[in-house]
Amino acid sequence: MKKPITAVFNDVHLKQGNEEDVLEAFDFMVKSCKELGINEIILAGDMFDVRKQQKLSVLKTFLIIVERCEDNNITLHAIPGNHDKPDYSSEESYLD
User: Fold this and answer.
1) Is 0.70 topped by the overall pTM?
2) Which whole-number Å values give the CA distances from 22 to 4, 86, 89, in the listed order?
3) Residue whose C-alpha is closest to residue 38's, from 77, 82, 3
4) 50-83 per-position pLDDT tens digit
5) Is 69 in contact with 40 (CB distance < 8 Å)?
6) How far is residue 65's CA from residue 22's CA, in Å, rounded to a whole number?
7) What's the CA gap between 37 and 20, in Å, rounded?
8) Alpha carbon distance 6, 29 (integer Å)
């Protein structure tokens, strides 16, 4: 079996009320990456659940995720999904 080179985390749908669950899942991802020698995680869309606005607790949780990657020397690539954008036609996203 070849050694994995990256981990993919998608359809998280982080929202007010599930912050602790998301952090727990992400901590498991980081731990697994460290055990396997993986230093890249790809967030492949829909990190957030709400399109129109993000609650402060949700943004703080995302910041914790980014900081945990930095603390563990893991590069985090984020590809915005439709829930990560204020509207479908926008190129900008909350991940920016």
Assistant:
1) yes
2) 23, 21, 28
3) 3
4) 877 888 999 999 999 999 999 999 999 998 888 8
5) no
6) 9
7) 25
8) 11
